[in-house]
Amino acid sequence: MSDRPAHELAHLGVHGLHTPDPARTVAYFVDLLGMDVVAVDGTATYLRAFGDYEEWSLKVIGSDRAGPEWVSWRTTSAEALERRVCGLELAGHPGRWVPADRGIGPFYEFHDPDGHVFRLYYDTRRYVAPPDKRPAVPTGFQAYPGRGAAVRRLDHVNLLARDVRACREFWETGFGLRTWEIVRLADGVGESAAWMSSSIQGHELIYTQERTSANGRLHHFAYLVDSREEVLRDADVLADAGIRVEAGPSRHTAVQGFYLYTREPGGNRIEIANGGYLMFAPDAEPYVWSYEEYRAKPGWGAALPSDFHIYGTPDVEG
Amino acid sequence: MSDRPAHELAHLGVHGLHTPDPARTVAYFVDLLGMDVVAVDGTATYLRAFGDYEEWSLKVIGSDRAGPEWVSWRTTSAEALERRVCGLELAGHPGRWVPADRGIGPFYEFHDPDGHVFRLYYDTRRYVAPPDKRPAVPTGFQAYPGRGAAVRRLDHVNLLARDVRACREFWETGFGLRTWEIVRLADGVGESAAWMSSSIQGHELIYTQERTSANGRLHHFAYLVDSREEVLRDADVLADAGIRVEAGPSRHTAVQGFYLYTREPGGNRIEIANGGYLMFAPDAEPYVWSYEEYRAKPGWGAALPSDFHIYGTPDVEG
Amino acid sequence: MSDRPAHELAHLGVHGLHTPDPARTVAYFVDLLGMDVVAVDGTATYLRAFGDYEEWSLKVIGSDRAGPEWVSWRTTSAEALERRVCGLELAGHPGRWVPADRGIGPFYEFHDPDGHVFRLYYDTRRYVAPPDKRPAVPTGFQAYPGRGAAVRRLDHVNLLARDVRACREFWETGFGLRTWEIVRLADGVGESAAWMSSSIQGHELIYTQERTSANGRLHHFAYLVDSREEVLRDADVLADAGIRVEAGPSRHTAVQGFYLYTREPGGNRIEIANGGYLMFAPDAEPYVWSYEEYRAKPGWGAALPSDFHIYGTPDVEG
Amino acid sequence: MSDRPAHELAHLGVHGLHTPDPARTVAYFVDLLGMDVVAVDGTATYLRAFGDYEEWSLKVIGSDRAGPEWVSWRTTSAEALERRVCGLELAGHPGRWVPADRGIGPFYEFHDPDGHVFRLYYDTRRYVAPPDKRPAVPTGFQAYPGRGAAVRRLDHVNLLARDVRACREFWETGFGLRTWEIVRLADGVGESAAWMSSSIQGHELIYTQERTSANGRLHHFAYLVDSREEVLRDADVLADAGIRVEAGPSRHTAVQGFYLYTREPGGNRIEIANGGYLMFAPDAEPYVWSYEEYRAKPGWGAALPSDFHIYGTPDVEG
Prior knowledge:
Four copies of one chain form a homotetramer.
Chain A: E1 9-12, E2 15-19, H1 22-32, E3 36-41, E4 44-48, E5 58-62, E6 67-75, H2 78-90, E7 96-98, E8 107-111, E9 117-121, E10 153-161, H3 164-175, E11 178-184, E12 191-197, E13 205-209, E14 218-224, H4 228-240, E15 245-251, E16 257-263, E17 269-275, E18 287-289, H5 291-295
Parallel strand pairs in A: 2-5, 6-9, 10-13, 11-18, 14-17
Antiparallel strand pairs in A: 1-6, 2-6, 3-4, 4-5, 7-8, 8-9, 10-14, 11-12, 12-13, 15-16, 16-17
């Protein structure tokens, strides 16, 4: 473990999402997920969840099609950021500096092996709630909105990748992410999925098999609520608002998180998530599922719809 | 049991509430409890909860002070209404007919022994959701609002009475309500509380001891949510909106309902409630608590604040 | 409505279950569902759930094959029992009197149109908890067992029937059961399912289409837990004990109950259930689903496995 | 931050508890908290919770009085253990090596400034479930027991200390624990409570004010369940088993954890806990409550009983 640059990534940070229908996408996040608009700048809308300590976390960008703009990590310190940038450049994965955006950044932007855009940053702007949004207990960041699903924060990101193993190794080697679960392909060598984390959380960054020839696509962003009961309730929030429930509520076999999937009006798949284990053992090894064992779906989670592992954004099925 | 006019009251129905601050009271019910405004008529606002099959259930009336206007029961049939009116008149408790209000009624209005105004009615108007409020599952009455506590319907009413026993007997004898629990006063004869129901529900109508010389006062109206987890969540909804939590979330010893008490801005005490037992035995006798046994608070409910059993509306403490 | 013998059936009562593996079946109900053995008599074991006010509710009987022995209703009074017996005999559906069993009964036994055995009774023996099983709050019947799913009581019964409509009309006409939902067959005339109740509960007795040539079969018995969160937890209780989860946890479209299905080791399908609406309107009409509308599964419930609507006990697939 | 020995303590580890009534104390942990006995050795019983990855976590030791034996931390690596031992010795806080106990250890044992015994260790023995205790999903460590509260693992430890600040600084300076909340004494200088963690969890180690002249006492050990709904359910598990509920279920202001307190039959206070925030910001500063602000109990938690902040074990009140 000695070479592992442990704990230099603190947590998933601000992230951007393209949508062909920004008005309805923003309405989905505001009215149904309970997020607040912090700022609007041209076709970009900056949103925050009530549990975000940073001023904003999600940037919705009007575009010709759906898909991720970028995903980011906040580093544990300014020095950690410098070291990781240095590491990328030494490893032959150079990126570029991008100026701060609405008080957060500057960012160092680069690509993972599948071509997804990632950013690293340390400088951020903490949210200060205006008087009418101060929570009763002052250790909270913002009053509980009580609107729709009222998601607390981003929980994890799931990206499609043509070579899951390469992406996993990129983050393990270069950034010290730990991997908690891996699913092998039928060939017993390749990997169809990997769940990784910068902390004791069971998953922050997931890669799953890209089954088309596309690259850099998003499977889903997942936002956290505080109980499984809330996930169940949110199924009514979404279904009764006319949003089709794609899958769930049920529990995933991997990491055992409770899920509910819908697609926001722009087409990006969004999960309402609760749970998933915390991994305390400092010397835990990833659990490696064989193809057959994983397909057997031990436990009690429901079957996923047939295109669940195919559809991503940008949609290339057309 | 042969003389008991069983099952002629179907359920608690539409009810009216006075408030000195109707704008803020309505905002409490709409923004924090998740009810919808159906109509406004002068100082009266008609509200409904998403689980109401009738068009409206709560009438908020601007007034010089807080308190109940009237509580009502819907009868099981038009004939049952006639029989109950006849019964009242024969028993020397005559009332008067009141015209229909926004499609519900006519009502027969009378007083219980403590002077609270009650109404009986059968004719009602069913709610038909407009297209944008239709629920995904058509057996629901209205789409889940996902706003604030999103209460489903009125659960029960608690009225203060100088003579609890007299009120209890009035409803048992005249209307076939069944009593599930009684608390005796320290004298072993009088009663400090009684929980009554027209159905298998553990409580619809509660009387508790009036400790002032006033009469006809409201202790609280209770609105239902679907789980204890929602009651906990609603404590954040209310506290973070600046509403003081008077008591709870915790569980009552009597009927074992889970509770959360606040006062709406006009001063009326409102409960968010979940649970309480269903009583299936057709021959169940009420459980009679001695003063000492009830004071011992068996089980795990929290202590109630000292003025919980004193404050009611209209407030006579001044 | 005037001829309807309303409210003469109080609730589903004691019920019997055949099993070819009584030891493991009893262990399932005791260890995993949290029921208690009250008595053993030859191959029969008498069990109770902690929320039963009667001394026992389930009789497990060793037999050559799985299936229902009988289902029963407790009537609202001794006179109601006499009237219903009289009604059966006048309607040309005579049964026979069966002596009391372990303090409950005598019973009047007869068959529904599909040949399921039913019993009516009024006399019963109330459970008196021994000192070590007394609950903290004395209005409870028994201390919370805290073992496995810890089911509270029987919630509903689902029987397969070749002619659902005939069964439904038998109970409506002869016993005043109310029907809350009906699903039509593709022919628009026949019925594939009906949900009926003797009270405000959304379902007590369900008939669903028998798709084999057998008759008198059980689809499932459902036992109640107090929250959806408990149903989720119980999926772990059962799956981790090696019981295959057949379906759920998820929510049914009809009556909106939250479910989890397993088969007890003898083969009978058992549901852990929570929820389903209460129907307060005294004049509610059943909701009639067209074949197409019901197949579309509005809302968010998961798909059921293909043999869910075929398998019943006795199993005739062999 | 550069000198802070960050992340060298991985998590709270095995811990020991003295009891004057070991048989009943063990029965409490097994029957009511759902733990399993792993081994018995003289008056010591080794117990594990189903979510423990190590073979055992709690050692119950028959003794003349209740109280903590020791609390421990597992380090992130063998080298981290060496460095922390070195650090203690350099800082003038030397301890001693203690041999391994049932496969876990060796331990380096020392005292915090209040005299509580702590241990550090890295070597451990992972639990391998026997076939009948393997969970359905193989990433779990043990099948869900479904017995009593079925606690998942130790969540946090609360120790009484005469000088909270000194204890807090001992762990911050020497071990890199981070402090999330501090409550000031009325003098504005001293501290009455501090919540500390080795990870993103809101609390692992808590110090609260010792109000007697004793030292080295335990306020409580807290064990985790997976939802607030489970905490509510566990109040019935405990109360119905005759265990007095000392406080809760309710939510703490500090760290916002949901709690239920009882005392095991030997007298040690035990919490069933759920929740408390996760702290993702790498640069978060502790929230410092003034005496007045904390006393005002913002939010909705219930009042704690008067001796809640006085009683600890060993009990010195006599």
